[in-house]
Design brief:
The complex is a heterodimer of chains A (224) and B (335).
Chain A lengths: L1 H33 L5 H9 L1 H24 L2 H17 L10 H21 L10 H6 L3 H20 L2 H11 L5 H8 L3 H28 L5
Chain B lengths: L6 H8 L5 H11 L2 H17 L7 H12 L4 H13 L3 H4 L1 H18 L1 H5 E5 L6 E4 L5 E4 L4 E5 L8 E12 L9 E6 L2 E5 L3 E7 L2 E8 L2 E4 L5 E4 L4 E5 L4 E4 L5 H4 L5 E8 H12 L3 E2 L3 H5 L1 E7 L3 H12 L1 E5 L4 E5 L1 H4 L1
Parallel strand pairs in B: 5-6, 15-18
Antiparallel strand pairs in B: 1-4, 2-3, 3-5, 4-5, 5-8, 6-7, 7-10, 8-9, 9-12, 10-11, 12-13, 14-16, 17-18
Helix pairs in contact in B: 1-3
Classes of the chains: A mainly alpha (224), B alpha+beta (335).
Amino acid sequence: MDTYRMTSKTQSDFEEFRSEVDQGIPLFTDKKIITTDDERLLRETFAINPKQGCSLLFCRYYESLCSHAIRFVHSKEVAEDIVSELFASFWQERSFDQITSSYRAYLYKAVRHRAYNYLRWKVHLTEPLDSVSLTTASKIVNPDDALLYSELHIKVEFIIQQLPPQCRRAYLMKRVEGMKYEEIASEMHISIKAVEALVSRALLRLRTDLKDNWFLGFLLVPMF
Amino acid sequence: MKELITKEFLFDFFDGKTTSIQRKLIEEWLKNADNEEMFYSCVHEWERLHPQFSPDRQAAQKNYELLLEGNGEYAVKYSSISDKVAARNFFAKASVWCAAVVALLLLTTFIFREHVFFKIYRSPLGQTSGFFLTDSTQVTLNLNSTLKVPRFGFGNDLRQVQLQGEAEFKVTHLQNNLRFRVLMGDGYQIEVLGTEFTAFSRASGKRVFLSKGKVKLELPKGKRLYMNPGSYFSANAEGDFKVTVPKETLAITAWKEQTFYFDNTQLSEVARQIQERFDVTVKIPDKNLAKTCIGGIYKARDADELFEILSALLEIEITQKSDCIELRTTKSYEL
């Protein structure tokens, strides 16, 4: 009796195991097609309740997207605005319905594009901004894009690193921290006029360097 | 080649530590769409490991939840920034044009609100005009006068019109006792139920003559007055007023027949009446001439007609000056 019981138990266990394997196979092939499975839960949530999906997505990517955006725009406020804006249009224009890639790839591409647009507007202040809609831009796949955007924030960082220390300090306080000229002046123990001069010098450097060495080449990229 | 590109390799690239040859490798590698997913996955991980600042996610998420729940404030807040970022996009949006058109329409309505919300009656040149209002009140409008009536009906509280100039009203008494009010400007107003009266309202003064029924007269500074039939109220520009019961009312109502009624009237008074009715300035420099009295009923559709009569009557010279008409005695009269 005991032996029988034991066998039957093992057999049923084995059967359970087998059934798990059987069910696992189609799941496994699914994973292969989609390639990233860490967003599976998100996708399932979106299928049932897009609102909740957006909320989860926001929770998961907001901070790192902000962190990515600030590399381009050098302003906490602008970075947060760009990301918030992106999530707003993601929901309002139901972009999640059209996504073929992962949410992560879409969001990063979109935030880079928005940040780039902002930066370009900053650098070419006098020139009108191209009205590139986000969806069309993110649909066009250009293997170079991903690299170019990464190189853009590297370049921006490089330019700032090359600035004289005082100039960099004033620029970062003004742009990144969003401080007022008066506050910076009292912290650096210099006059307000001097702070203004330092900040505008940094901006001018950024503008000329990006324009001459880099941006013109970038503008030739057919995606725009 | 795939083994070459690792997470660490990409991290180095993000940090700007790769050579241009390595960059070429990544470029090749990225041609495979699947690798793009890995690329962004690495971007994400890199960002998580190297945060640049700590954004206030809780506050932002709270705002975002509001948006998801259909609260528009968030969208409005961020759409203004997207305008900043995409300045040119702004005018490409149909909604913006719609808003602009609506705003323009509202502005136009505001500017021309008098014309939109009121029908303005004006007598044709050199003629009095008679018409009925929607409540079948009969109005006779004198020359040089306007009456503003609400274009879209009187409403249920009050029938209210605005008078500038002179008009005779025959107000119909409505079953629901709806009051009829004439605003005369400067704080004067007439309120009636159903009566016949003549109202005069100009800068030079206000006058009301009641032929039938009863009217309530609101005066400036909260004073009020009830008038009986046949009584004549007149106030000058300074606000002094008197109520009389004239024996002869023809002088008051003569304008309706386009006549002037003079009964031993001084020429200065004649000039004043001409000025009132035809809106022409008449001057009589000679004091003696101004005191000359005339009488009679004269029909005159315009100022020239009356001047013709006067010149025949008194042998006076009428000179048209740039801003006024001057009456002088002719030389023969002086001699």
